[in-house]
Amino acid sequence: MPDFTPRPGHSVDGYDVTTRLGTDYYQVFADISDEDRAVWERAQAYVDEVGTRMQDAWDAAAYPLDIAMRLGELDLFNDGIVHPDLTRFSPLAAGLVNMEVSRGDGSLGTVIAVQGGLALRTLALFGSHEQQARWLKPVARGEVPASFALTEPDHGSDSVSLETTARRDGEEWVLDGAKKWIGNGASGGITFVWARVVSPGDETDGAVRCFLVEQEATGYTGTVISGKASLRGIHQAHVALDAVRIPRDAVLPGAKSFKDASTVLYSTRSGVAWSALGHATACYEAALAYSQQRVQFGKPLAKFQMVQERLAQMLEELTAMQLYCRHLADLEASGGLRPTQASLAKYHNTRAARRIAATARDLLGGNGILLENGVMQHMADIEAIHTYEGTESVQALLIGRDITGMSAFA
To answer: Which domains does the chain have, with CATH numbers?
Structure first.
């Protein structure tokens, strides 16, 4: 970058709008334990370590796998999973990691959701002793990229209707089908593939099971999806499964129906609420910092009534998001969290994050579209988390069914 020389009409080279401000107006996180705070600070240090490289990677739509798997080296993939071979994170610590990493970069927040929340959780909940002995620690440490393959090109919100099949042939399973939007699906690791059993006359016929597939298996093809305008720093794949043969013991014995897939998704839904909080925090703090530094009409933007009103509106929504997340963690810690409560948090927080990001973009004016200022990148990434782990409409229907006792699903 060339040296900056002030000139008439160009007195400022840029604005410091990405520095962490620690916004917590209601002191929602003031009383967290030293143990949880240490995990949070480890996530902060990681974000500071990789921030510049990830901004460049997002711009170039590149996936720096070493940065992603560094999360495992720092033991940040746990996501609140309870297993004797994994470090125990409280729900609050797991949420703070999701929040902080997403505040730095949404693609890395999605890496946690994929590698930890979906793949590692699936293995920990449903894998055999042998599967866990071989794969659990390597996945947790980031030595092996892992993915969760449920959605298909024809089945997103209605993933319960998945058409990928698994049939027995002697001592092997044979998988045929296609999956889409599979994070880490083309990263050279392992994939947990959800498929429908085809076994006419058998009681398992039609059951949805999960299979551990090594991506080097013959017939497995993962193609990186190009042209994304969101989460550009992680690769999602279109996975083709053409007569993929895997051993009989590749099926996860604990995963016996689609309800088991739903269990994983419900568990990660709260993580999306925390991730939305991270994005929104970055956008609010960028807008606040910019308003204090940017001078127009002879005074900082922060001295204008309209700007202060917008900042107050953003803080109102951000504080509500923090309260949702904190109580969500407390409910989970007590064992009282219901799936639809996680749905409500996800529903509220991704919607609120969109509004905060849009307001921040407005407050930064033309500078709001520059990636160096962060807001536009977060604004784009929020669009992805608003959709994955259940769209806005699906969350509304889940909540609606819970409060009315009547299903409105088609």
So the answer is: 34-140 (1.10.540.10), 146-257 (2.40.110.10), 259-404 (1.20.140.10)
Q: Please give the single-letter amino acid code of residue 27.
A: Q
Distance from C-alpha of 288 to C-alpha of 290, rounded to nearest angstrom: 5
Which residue is listed with tokens 């007569």? 243
pLDDT digits (tens, 9 = 90+) for 185-195: 999 999 999 99
What gap in Å lies between CA 14 and CA 4, rounded to an integer? 10
Extract the runs of DSSP E, i.e. beta strands, from 219-316.
220-224, 236-247, 295-296, 299-300
Tell me the per-residue pLDDT of 51-81, one tens digit each, with 9 for 90 and over. Answer: 999 999 999 999 999 999 999 999 999 989 9
Give every CB contact of residue 211 below 8 A, 6+ residues apart in sequence: 166, 173, 175, 192, 193, 194, 195, 246, 250, 251, 252
Strands 146-149 and 190-197: parallel
Q: Compute how many other C-beta atoms are within 10 angstroms of the C-beta atom of residue 90.
A: 17
Distance CA 164, CA 374 (A): 39
DSSP lists the bridge partners of residue 237 as: 182, 224
Four-point Cα dihedral 194, 198, 199, 202, nearest 10: 60
Amino acid at 181: W
pLDDT digits (tens, 9 = 90+) for 344-402: 999 999 999 999 999 999 999 999 999 999 999 999 999 999 998 888 999 999 999 99
Q: Are 15 and 294 in contact (CB under 8 A)?
A: yes
Rg (CA), the chain: 22
Alpha-carbon gap, residue 94 to 117, rounded angstroms: 10
The closest alpha carbon to 146, from 47, 54, 252, belongs to: 252
